[in-house]
Amino acid sequence: MKLLLTALKHTRKPTVYIGRRCCSSPSSSSRGLPSLQDEVIVGSSLELVQTLGSQVQVRPGFISEEEEAALLQELEPGLRKKRYEFDHWDDAIHGYRETERLRWGPVCEEILNRVRSVAFPQGGPLLGPVHVLDLDKAGYIKPHVDSVKFCGSTIAGLSLLSDSIMRLVKDDAPNEWLDLLLTRRSLYILRDQARYNFSHEILKDEESVFNGHRVPRQRRISVICRNLPG
């Protein structure tokens, strides 16, 4: 996939875009964001972008509308039985409900196998249950670093129902950051340093801006695969 790097000014500090040309159909793009279709990551410096280039990936249009509908058809009945919670055991998530799913129908299993094939080494040990996180429109994920006790070096997530912005900030240098434009039906992958040395968060709807472009946040479901700790 061809990378397009463009250096710009972003308010008072320089930024760098990594643009990935979307190889899916035009229907996968988000309305109101035509100029952002190929520009999915913005960072605080070119050096940071180059350092994390192989460890942060966004693939717009990874699944089709029909595949999204198939996932929702399996997930919605169980999610509807749960209430949105506004407290989390480690105070990382606000306005959410979640579940884990081990068994899927054939269509959804094929989708998840495709995620695993692009995100994880072949034959590597994977965490069995798939984590499903449902964020209310008013919900958000606070900056946090996932515990190494619960998952390994790689996390891969499908974004359903809504566009959103994921922000990564270096633990010991808060002026070093990346913003990821996670369009509806995209896949994101975080590996190694991006997992352990950077916090990540999903911005609130009122803060959801990508390089000056407003990105409205609706209810968002993420379907997340992880590998086992090494």
Automatic annotation (TrEMBL):
Protein family according to the UniProt entry: Belongs to the alkB family.
Domain of life the protein comes from: Eukaryota
Keyword hit for S-adenosyl-L-methionine: no
Cofactor(s) essential for the protein: Fe(2+)
A GO cellular component entry from the record: mitochondrial matrix
A single MF term (Gene Ontology): metal ion binding
Function: Required to induce programmed necrosis in response to DNA damage caused by cytotoxic alkylating agents. Acts by triggering the collapse of mitochondrial membrane potential and loss of mitochondrial function that leads to energy depletion and cell death. ALKBH7-mediated necrosis is probably required to prevent the accumulation of cells with DNA damage. Does not display DNA demethylase activity. Involved in fatty acid metabolism.
Designated name of the protein: Alpha-ketoglutarate-dependent dioxygenase alkB homolog 7, mitochondrial
Lineage: Eukaryota, Metazoa, Chordata, Craniata, Vertebrata
